[in-house]
Amino acid sequence: MPNLKEVRTRIASVKSTQQITSAMKMVAASRLRKAQNAIIQMRPYAAKLMEILQNLSASLNARDDGSVFSQQREPGKVLIVPVSSNRGLCGAFNANVIKITEEIIRKKYNQQYSNGDLSFLTIGRKVSEYFGKREYNILESHDDIFDNLNFENVNKISESVMELFAGKKFDRVEIIYNQFKNAATQRLVSEQFLPVEPVKDADGTGEAEKADFIFEPSKEEIVGDLIPKSLKVQFYKALLDSYAAEHGARMTAMHLATDNAQELLKDLNLTYNKARQAAITKEILEIVSGAEALKG
């Protein structure tokens, strides 16, 4: 059985840790509220824009001016955009992004990886460090974007990605991130960002019937303005989703850590009381033994 000093030291250490995890939980909860409001407000707008984008892309053919972002090409060169957080202490949030990214490389883009045609644009320090240490081809890293997450800053990244695709530097762009469901649940998502996938029919087996649009002022102006704007909004929504999911995961992880610390404190206090009782009993026995010896 450990001595009293060792147990007291452990109790003090666990109490200190519990105070830290409790404070981090409250900070994460405060940031989550703001991030959650932002993504909830963005989703209806982004969903409607995506619907228009897919229908508009389906109404165009490869010869239409301005439809470069909907041109389907063989994925000879692929750009993957994994999104993680800059900090840890958020459970399996970052590990899951890394895991699914490696799984996609192995199952879907193994040939491109072997040929050196697979590149990364990393967002978040955790994925930047992981893939950088393993010498993957990292084209760009944007680890500071979450320090000031707004549409203007994200717009620069999405424009860079779109220019790479339009210039045929890459034939496919895929973004991997955690989608926010609620504070305790995040869903890993792998979406094809470029080219824009045509809208599917109800059973998902083929293209749906193309929407009949009347273009005003002209098809070229509409396509040239709406498709890039829609893509930028979708990219921004993915980062908002990841940001809210990160704080939800951290709040949940710190809540569990605080509860675990409380359970550990109960066990340590019980151990301390047992050790203290044993020490007192030992002292009493020594006194009684001494007294009996003096009588003899």
Structure description:
- Helix content is 60%, strand content 12%.
- The chain has six helices and five strands.
- It has a five-stranded mixed beta sheet.
- Helix 1 runs antiparallel to helix 6 and helix 5 crosses helix 6.
- It is elongated and about 115 Å long.
- The two termini are 34 Å apart.
- The relative contact order is 0.19.
What characteristics describe this protein?
single chain; 296 residues; alpha/beta; elongated
Strand-helix topology:
Blueprint: H1 4-58, E1 78-82, H2 93-107, H3 110-115, E2 118-122, H4 125-133, E3 138-141, H5 151-166, E4 172-182, E5 185-194, H6 219-295
Question: What's this, in brief?
Answer:
This protein starts with a helix and ends with a helix. 60% of the residues lie in helices and 12% in strands.
Regions with pLDDT < 50 over 5+ consecutive residues? none
Structural class: alpha/beta
Q: Over all CA atoms, what is the radius of gyration?
A: 28 Å
Distance between the termini: 34 Å
The helical percent reads 55-70%
Quaternary class? single chain
Helical region count? 6
What summary fits the major beta sheet? 5 strands, mixed
**Large-scale geometry:** elongated
Count of DSSP strands: 5
Give, in order, the helices and strands.
HEHHEHEHEEH
